[in-house]
């Protein structure tokens, strides 16, 4: 294979080299997606299905699913947004530390190696009414009994899921933001200090514009991860309304066989929403970036 003048492979050549790995993955994903779509229309089912072609999609108009949709969007937006905000600020704080101290900040990576189910159990241990925080609040006199502690996990607004995702996702933002900050010229910040710019001004005018491409990508990843993940919502989420992933699980495994096409229809719509969100968000972010550069 020939290379271009820079010594790099062309896109076609790179794809050709990756094809032994990519093609099986694409085939498995595409086959699974095609099967899910077919079963959502009542086709390719291992059992007789008496509903019409769009019967499963009509079932998704049930009133309780509207609450699940709103809860899933709220949890995904809040957890991804808070993680991006906290992660970018923490990354900036670590970046400003001397090199000798930065080595000790590796502890922030701990949540990255924890499986999501472990994070869910940690949320139960610390945030439940029989957990560490409620016991601490009782012993220092903030509440009369541990049961008076506010219901964070199952309060109906997804607070436990959001906090669990915040703990799990913030280190991911820090990791990618630090990688971007290490490519930033420190002279820009030093010059801003010479002109007596405050730390908030430096963060807003220098750090954030430099991190913007990374943060946009991270937000998309975290939003879609929070929107479609199953393990943490299953452990610390509400039963009604539940996250869409939990609703799909219940429809497929805990209901009758006739409800399985409805589960597939729900998963299909979640996939289409995810693709649409990526397209809309990237285009919007690109237009906003172009307007800022013109200013």
What's the short version?
The protein is an all-alpha fold.
Shape: globular
State the secondary-structure class: mainly alpha
The counted number of beta strands is 0
Low-confidence stretches: none
How much of the sequence lies in strands comes to under 5%
Please give the oligomerization state of what you see: single chain
Radius of gyration: 24 Å
The main sheet comes to: none
Explain how this protein is built.
- With 295 residues, the protein is an all-alpha fold.
- Helices cover 71% and strands 0% of the residues.
- Helix 6 (116-127) crosses helix 8 and helix 8 (159-181) packs across helix 10.
Detail the topology: elements first, then pairings.
Layout: H1 11-40, H2 55-59, H3 63-95, H4 99-102, H5 110-113, H6 116-127, H7 132-139, H8 159-181, H9 186-194, H10 199-228, H11 231-236, H12 244-253, H13 260-294
Helix pairs in contact: 1-13, 3-8, 3-10, 6-8, 8-10, 10-13, 12-13
Keywords, please?
globular; 13 helices; 295 residues; mainly alpha
